[in-house]
Amino acid sequence: MTETSLTRTQVNKLGDRLRKGEVSKSDLRLLEDYRRSFTEAYDHVVEKIRNELGLAPTGRRAKSTKSIIDKLRREGTRLSTMQDVAGCRIVVSDMLGQDKAVRRLEELFPNSNLKDRRKMPSHGYRAVHVIVPHSNKLVEIQIRTSLQQSWAELSEKVSDVVDPLIKYGAGDEEARFVLNSLSRVIEKYETSELRLALDELKDSKPEGAISDAIKNAQAAKKQAIIDSLGEASEVLLSAERTKNDFSN
C-alpha cells in the first residue's frame, strides 16, 4: 500500500503506531512515502513566494522521519494535522518588515492560517508562522526578523550540544534561563523599534526624519544584543565542555 492510497484515518493510525514505539520497517517506508508526498505542495508554495512576492525563502521539503516521530511522541500530535512536515523560512530585517511580509503572504494564500509566536512565545521562540494548505497538505512558512533568527540559531546550537529538550521547555535550567532572558531582551528592543517606525509613518515624516542620535542609539542596542547572543553561545558551550571534561 502506497502513501497515496492512505486515507486520513490510515495516516493517523500510522502516527499512532509510531507514537507508541511500534516502528516496523513497513511503517517506516510508509512514513518516508508520506514525507515525500509533500514535495509538490512545498514546491508550489515556494515558487509562488519567489515569483509573485520576490522573496527568497529557504527551507526543507519535509522533516526527517526521526523529527516527525519525536514530535508525535513529545506532543501527541496527530500525523494528518502536523503543520510543519514541510516548511520554509523568510528572514526580514525587523518587525515592520515582518508584518508587511505576513500581510503579503495572507493575500497570496487567502486560505492560510496564522500563528503569531511573538504574542505567545514558545519557550522563548518568537516568529510568525503562516500555514498554507495545498492539495490536502500543509506547508508552514516561518517569518522571522534577523534577531529572532539569531536567537533561534543559538537555541538550536545549545540544544544540540547541551540538551535537546531545551527547545521544548525542559532540560538544562541555566541554559533555558539564559535563552529566555535573551528572548525578552529582543522582544523589548523590537517592540521599541517598531513603535518608532510606526510613529514616523503615522506622522508622515520624510524618510530619515528620526534623529541620527535615536537611530545610532537603536543601532547600538541591536549590536549589543547580537554581541550578547554570541557571548551566551560561548559561555553555555564552554560550560558544557567543562562539564564533559569533568565527567570523563
Number of helices: 8
CATH superfamily of the largest domain: Beta Polymerase, domain 2
How many domain units? 2
Helix content: 55-70%
Uncertain stretches of 5 or more adjacent residues: none
Q: How large is the radius of gyration?
A: 21 Å
Q: Biggest β-sheet: count, sense, barrel?
A: 5 strands, mixed
Give me the count of strands. 5
Strands of the widest sheet, in order across it, are 1-2-5-4-3
First and last CA, distance: 49 Å
**Order of H and E elements:** HHHEHEHEEEHHH
Secondary-structure content class: alpha+beta
Just give the CATH class of the largest domain. Alpha Beta
Average pLDDT for all residues: 88
Q: Which shape, going by the Cα principal axes?
A: flat
CATH topology of the largest domain: Beta Polymerase, domain 2
CATH second-level architecture of the largest domain: 2-Layer Sandwich
Percent of residues in beta strands? 5-15%
